[in-house]
Specification:
By secondary structure, this protein is of the alpha/beta class. About 45% of the residues lie in helices and about 10% in strands. The chain is built from 17 helices and 9 strands. The strands form 2 sheets. A 6-stranded mixed beta sheet has the order 1-2-3-5-7-9, with helices on both faces. Strands 4-6-8 form a 3-stranded parallel beta sheet. Helix 2 crosses helix 16. The chain is globular and about 60 Å long.
Length: about 350
C-alpha cells in the first residue's frame, strides 16, 4: 500500500458500510501516538452514531505489520524530563481498549505482520480478529522493565494452562495459529486474500451483524490453525505453574532440556523487577471478573513503571542506544523484594482509572 507523504498518521473514513481506521505510520510500523489514540476515540464516536456504518475495520499501512506498539521513544523522553505523557497516554489508551471490547458494532481487526504491545490492545479486544501466515504477535514489555499492559494481563491469564504466563514473561512471538490458541485471535486468513476480504466486508451493508461478519470472514479462512505451542503445553504448564519467579526459574533449571535452557536464557535477559511485577499481575488477573478490573490494576502499575529506573534503562538499551545491554536494578530476581514492587500495586488515589 503506497502512502503519500502528506497523509496523516491516522486515516479515518467510511468506505461502503465500513468505518475504516487505518494506522498510518508505516516507517515506524504504525507505532501509536497519543494523538492517534485520541483520533481513534473520535472515530468510534463518529462511526457508532452513523447509521450508515455497519462495522469497524482496523488496519495498518505498509507491508510490515498492523502496529509495533506505542510510541516508546516519546514516553522515554517524557520520563527523562519528568513529564506526564505516560500518565496521560495510558489513561486514554486503556479507556480505548475497554471501549473496543464493548463496541456495539462489529469490530474487525486485520492483524497481519507485526502486532505488538499497544497494537494488541487495539486489535485483540475486538470481536473479529483476523491473523495471517505473516502474523508475529508479542507482548515483549518485560524486556523494557515494563509488563504486558493494554489489557494484556486479562488476555494472557485466560490462555490455556500456563501458555499466557510463558508468553507474558518471555515476550516471545506468537504466529497466527499460536495467537488463536492463546485467545488473542479468531481465524487465519492468507495475507493474499485480505484485500478481497476487505471488499466483502465493505459491501456487507449497514445492517451487518456479528454473525454475518463472522460468516464472511470464515469464507476466506484457510483452516490451518494448528499451534506448535499447543504440543508443548504440558511442559510449559509444569514450568510456569508457580506463583514465584524463583520457583519458575528453578523448575526450568531442574529440567535441563534444550527447550528449558532456551527459555531460561530469555528470562535471564529480562528485567527482574519487570518479571516479578508481570507474574503478580497475571496471577491477580486470573481471579479478576472483568477486563476493566485488569486495566485499572495495570494503570496503577504503569504509573510506577513510568517513574522507575528500569523503564528508562530498558528503553535506552533496546530503542535509544540499541546496545542490548541494560543494567537492571535490582539485577537479580532474589533481590526484588516485596517493598520494591509494592508501589506497583498501591491505590493511585485521585489518579485511579475508573470506568463509567
Amino acid at each position: 500500500m503506497n502512502v503519500a507523504a502528506h497523509e496523516p498518521d491516522l486515516i479515518v473514513r467510511r468506505e461502503g458500510s465500513a468505518g475504516i481506521v487505518r494506522l498510518n505510520r508505516p516507517k515506524a510500523i504504525n507505532a501509536v501516538t497519543l494523538d492517534m489514540f485520541r483520533g481513534i476515540h473520535r472515530a468510534l464516536d463518529q462511526f457508532e452514531a452513523d447509521p450508515a456504518v455497519g462495522l469497524i475495520l482496523l488496519e495498518g499501512a505498509g507491508e510490515r505489520g498492523l502496529c509495533a506498539g506505542g510510541d516508546i521513544r516519546s514516553l522515554w523522553e517524557s520520563a527523562n524530563a519528568g513529564g506526564d505523557l505516560g500518565k496521560v497516554m495510558w489513561r486514554e489508551e486503556y479507556t480505548l481498549n475497554a471501549r473496543i471490547a464493548k463496541f456495539p458494532k462489529p469490530y474487525v481487526a486485520f492483524m497481519d505482520g507485526i502486532v505488538m504491545g499497544g497494537g494488541v490492545g487495539l486489535s485483540a479486544h475486538g470481536a473479529h480478529r483476523v491473523v495471517t501466515e505473516r502474523t508475529r504477535l508479542a507482548m515483549p514489555e518485560a524486556g523494557l522493565g515494563f509488563f504486558p499492559d493494554v489489557g494484556g494481563t486479562w488476555l494472557l491469564s485466560h490462555a490455556p494452562g500456563e501458555i499466557g504466563t510463558c508468553f507474558g514473561l518471555t515476550g516471545q512471538n506468537m504466529n497466527g495459529a499460536d495467537a488463536i490458541y492463546a485467545g488473542f485471535a479468531d481465524v487465519i486468513v492468507p495475507s493474499r486474500k485480505l484485500a478481497v476480504l476487505r471488499e466483502a466486508l465493505i459491501d456487507l451493508g449497514a445492517r451487518a451483524d456479528s454473525a454475518r461478519v463472522r460468516a464472511v470472514i470464515a469464507g476466506f479462512a484457510n483452516g490451518d490453525a494448528d499451534s506448535s505451542v499447543a504440543a508443548i503445553r504440558p511442559r510449559i504448564d509444569a514450568w510456569f505453574a508457580h506463583g514465584r519467579m524463583d520457583d519458575i526459574l528453578t523448575a526450568l533449571q531442574r529440567d535441563g532440556s534444550e527447550l528449558a535452557r532456551s527459555i531460561l536464557k530469555i528470562l535471564n535477559e529480562k528485567s527482574p523487577r519487570g518479571l516479578v511485577v508481570t507474574l503478580k499481575l497475571l496471577r491477580l488477573a486470573r481471579a479478576s471478573a472483568t477486563l476493566e478490573e485488569c486495566l485499572a490494576r495495570e494503570y496503577r502499575a504503569a504509573l510506577a513503571v513510568f517513574a522507575s529506573d528500569d523503564f528508562r534503562e530498558g528503553v535506552r538499551a533496546a530503542i535509544i542506544d540499541k546496545d542490548r545491554n541494560p543494567k537492571w536494578s535490582p539485577s537479580a530476581i532474589e533481590d526484588v523484594t516485596p517493598e520494591i514492587i509494592a508501589p506497583y500495586f498501591a491505590n493511585a488515589g485521585a489518579d485511579e482509572l475508573v470506568f463509567k
